[in-house]
Amino acid sequence: MPKHEFFVDMTCEGCSKAVTRVLDRLGGVQFDIDLPNKKVFIDSEHNVDTLLETLKKTGKNTSYLGEKSAQ
Asked: What residue ranges do the domains of the chain occupy?
């Protein structure tokens, strides 16, 4: 499953909970949130556009950073 990296302008725990809420609602995703670096890493079969639109539902400035290689 591809792992995608996104920038989400999160400033607090509430912001990361908003991200968790929209991704849980989408379903079919596994994700990690890096709040200090304002990044979200998502494993999903959903396409990038779907993931980006879902993250934008938080109202935060969001952008796609690229595919992350498996580590």
From this structure: 3-68
